[in-house]
Design brief:
The chain is α+β, with helices and mostly antiparallel strands. It contains 14 helices and 34 strands. The chain folds into 6 domains: 79 residues, membrane protein fhac (Ubiquitin-like (UB roll)), CATH 3.10.20; 76 residues, membrane protein fhac (Ubiquitin-like (UB roll), Roll), CATH 3.10.20; 89 residues, membrane protein fhac (Ubiquitin-like (UB roll), Roll), CATH 3.10.20; 77 residues, membrane protein fhac (Ubiquitin-like (UB roll), Roll), CATH 3.10.20.310; 71 residues, Roll (Ubiquitin-like (UB roll)); 272 residues, Porin. Strands 19-20-21-22-23-24-25-26-27-28-29-30-31-32-33-34 form a 16-stranded antiparallel sheet. Strands 9, 10, 11 and 12 form a 4-stranded mixed sheet that branches.
Length: 766
């Protein structure tokens, strides 16, 4: 620390000065501190005796504030004049050669340096090292960072970090010397540093890039693999990485002594918590007597026990597993010791981060209120419920201890964009050129109400819609939804002009269930689409009979749904399931009464769907999400002499069923023996999808998913027609809402099938 003229101490020496008193204190050169604050820091006041010790101490106090490059004091009689030379402020901060703008913003935060901070050599040095460490974690070695400054006015400076990235170290070979019971692929799976795979540049392959900052932790990860397989005595050395700096290729060696494999002996629980029964708890544990010991399962059992105790109000319960190893029998006896602590009640619920969403809207989804006894399941369900709203990019609920018996819940949210005003165009493989405009908001004015209005015009369709849904009417468990629409659509075989609407009243119950009833009305005008196919022109009258439907439909709906997922757009755990029944009354005169004496038939349409989501990050340390989706629909209650309008029948193909085939193109045919015959729709349909989604760009909020689709449809049974496909899709959480770009390939297409290799959608869940 530089203290110019701190030699003031010898100037004041002498009996004359010792007897002199301070008559005035002045501060010159201050801008970051006010004189009153400076007076408090100096801790010298008018009337105090002159003291070299106190003046020196005051100078040290000023330096400790971190604002000043130099501080010195002049004395003229009883007047003390403090002179300050303040540090320069950083007017501009730039990082060159590191990466994209988003990457640079993230790095700037981790550097602890930003525009407006004071220029300090030690902080600049620390920031420089942070850049090097960050690049080392990404596999770059021998990175050079040069720092240059340029004055901006008299009191500021511009700082530029010029980054010259080093070379990436690639791990070409990994050796686990002494490993025989567990294969290298299993040992390597959880590691941050892995051997380069063939075609390692592909997203799901190992690229072999060394993450130097994680190398020391990989030994513990290998040890953990052995602990999952019961090898409690396994020894794993620290990794030795040898780098050829000519090619930047590396080899990593571990020395391993596996030891014996242990099985679980006796399992017991020691606790005195009222309301907990040891027999019930033991029955739900995953580690059972006789099984191979697995440290992962033991951790899950600990978490399960903590949750069970937490459900009784013990927010800070501790479960300590006592492990008693029998080396001769190769068994390990486990005893879980539960220390519940004190029961805890909720003192207050404090919400932050919601600039738009009203507090009362957030509180609807929090199942713990002031005065309630703490409950671990309620806490988890509250976080998931907030995530399912789609209002927030992230949700975190922390507990803040107020006393031994009270805690505050700190609900921290980061709001996501829920509303949009958009106008644009595009091109779809099926709809051709499109133009659309819409105004929508899932959380209008922060009220939790979902409202939208818009239209879309394409080469084959024109549609208008207006919808309104209040999921919590007057903050109750009741919901109300209204949807009005008009649609003109050119399907493959017929055109449809339809206007209609639905009104739904629902209620949430049992936390994750929602039931609703509603009414609907449709005025439909469908006509046969004559495609000038001279080969089949003789069937035009038959097809007109099939597709020309002019009718009115009144419906009553009954719906039941279940949702315990943790996020609206990209769930990583939980299940979505629903079943909807429509009782439809159809009336109209445009029917061939010779063929259908009963006219239009009333019918019952039942549709069900299920979605299962499972994130693998806890298992493989990688954000992969597995999804299974299933859908099924049936139409029943129609007599043989009655007609179901073709527009009401079932079709497959396109997004939401079997991708790779054009929308509505998979269907029973009017003439099953002719693959080019017109589609007549079915009464039974089912489809399923298996998907694996992985990160593509976290900064852009993009993911890459691979899928396999399978569907069946028929007039009299489900399995009359079967089709499947596979492909990949880009999932983009854009500022305009979620966008899916789908690239699909049919697996078992047959003559007459209408395929589509590319499709896209906006607004749907991933």
């Amino acid at each position: 620390m530089k203290m110019k003229k701190i030699v003031f101490s010898w100037i004041l020496m002498g009996s004359l000065l010792l007897a002199q008193k301070v008559t005035q204190i002045k501060f010159e050169g201050l801008s970051h501190l006010s004189p009153s604050v400076a007076m408090e820091i100096a801790d010298i006041h008018v009337g105090d005796e002159m003291s070299a010790v106190k003046i020196n101490e005051s100078i040290k106090n000023f330096f400790s504030q971190g604002y000043f490059k130099d501080v010195w004091v002049d004395q003229n009689g009883g007047v003390l004049v403090y002179h300050f030379k303040e540090k320069l402020a950083i007017a501009n901060l730039e990082i060159k050669g590191y990466g994209s703008g988003d990457d640079t913003d993230t790095l700037s935060k981790s550097m602890g340096l930003k525009k407006g901070d004071l220029y300090d050599e030690s902080r600049i040095k620390k920031a420089k090292q942070e850049i090097i460490s960050k690049l080392e974690s990404e596999g770059y070695y021998d990175t050079v960072v040069e720092v240059t400054t340029a004055p901006v006015g008299e009191s500021s400076v511009s700082v530029t970090f010029d980054v010259n990235k080093g070379e990436k170290i690639k791990i070409k070979k990994m050796n686990f010397v002494g490993a025989s019971e567990i294969g290298q692929s299993d040992l390597e799976l959880p590691l941050a540093n892995k051997e380069e795979d063939f075609l390692g540049w592909m997203p799901w392959r190992n690229d072999g890039v060394a993450k130097v900052d994680q190398l020391e932790y990989d030994a513990y990860r290998v040890k953990d693999v052995y602990m999952k397989h019961g090898y409690l005595d396994a020894y794993v050395s620290k990794p030795l990485m040898r780098v050829d700096f000519g090619s930047y290729a590396a080899k990593v060696d571990y020395k391993v002594a596996e030891g014996a494999q242990y099985r679980v002996g006796k399992v017991s629980i020691a606790q005195e918590v009222e309301g907990l029964e040891n027999e019930e708890l033991l029955g739900d544990l995953t580690l059972k007597e006789g099984k191979i010991f697995n440290i992962d399962r033991m951790r899950k059992d600990v978490k399960y026990l903590e949750e069970e105790v937490g459900n009784l109000g013990y927010a800070y319960a501790k479960v300590s597993p006592q492990m008693n190893k029998d080396a001769e029998e190769k068994t390990i006896n486990l005893q879980y010791v539960i220390q519940p602590g004190e029961k805890v009640t909720i003192n207050d619920v404090l919400i932050s981060g919601n600039d738009t969403t009203k507090d009362r809207v957030i509180r609807r989804y929090i199942y713990l209120a002031p005065g309630d006894l703490y409950n671990a399941v309620d806490l988890k369900d509250s976080k998931n419920a907030l995530g399912r709203t789609g209002f927030f990019e992230s949700v975190d609920i922390e507990s803040q201890r107020v006393s031994e018996e009270k805690i505050n819940l700190l609900v921290k949210v980061k709001e996501a964009p829920t509303g949009s005003i958009s106008a644009g165009g595009g091109y779809g493989s099926y709809e051709g050129l499109m133009f659309n405009a819409s105004v929508s908001d899932r959380n209008i004015f922060g009220s939790g109400i979902d409202a939208s209005a818009g239209f879309e015009i394409s080469e084959i369709s024109t549609s208008y819609n207006l919808s309104f849904t209040n999921p919590k009417v007057w903050d109750s468990q009741y919901s109300l939804g209204l949807n009005l629409y008009k649609k003109d659509y050119e399907y493959i075989d017929f055109t449809q002009d339809q206007i209609g609407g639905t009104l739904m009243l629902g209620r949430q119950f049992l936390r994750n269930f929602h039931g609703s009833v509603g009414v609907g009305y449709v005025d439909n005008q469908s006509e046969f689409a004559d495609n000038n196919d001279s080969l089949y022109s003789y069937l035009d009258d038959v097809y007109k009979e099939l597709y020309d439907d002019k009718y009115k439909k009144g419906s009553v709906f009954f719906s039941l749904s279940y949702d315990n997922t943790d996020d609206f757009y990209t769930p990583r755990e939980g299940m979505i399931a629903s079943v909807t029944t429509e009782l439809a009354n159809v009336s109209g005169d445009d029917v061939n009464l010779t063929k259908y004496p009963g006219g239009y038939g009333n019918f019952v349409k039942t549709s069900g769907k299920v979605g299962l989501y499972y994130g693998l990050e806890d298992w493989i340390d990688y954000d992969m999400i597995l999804r299974f989706k299933g859908r099924m629909s049936t139409i029943s209650g129609v007599a043989d002499n009655e007609k179901i309008p073709t527009a009401e029948k079932l079709f497959l193909g396109g997004l939401g069923s079997v991708r790779g085939y054009s929308p509505y193109s998979i269907s029973p045919l009017y003439d099953p023996s002719d693959p080019y015959s017109r589609r007549s729709g079915g009464k039974y349909s089912a489809s399923s999808s298996i998907e694996a989604s992985i990160p593509l760009s976290e900064a852009a909020k993009m993911r890459l998913a691979f899928f396999y689709d399978y569907g069946m449809i028929g007039e009299d049974s489900f399995d009359e027609i079967k089709r499947s496909s596979t492909g990949a899709m880009i999932e983009w959480q854009s500022m305009f809402g979620p966008i899916n770009l789908v690239f699909a390939k049919p697996i078992d297409e047959e003559p007459g099938d209408d395929t589509a290799s590319f499709e896209f959608s906006m607004g749907s869940r991933f």
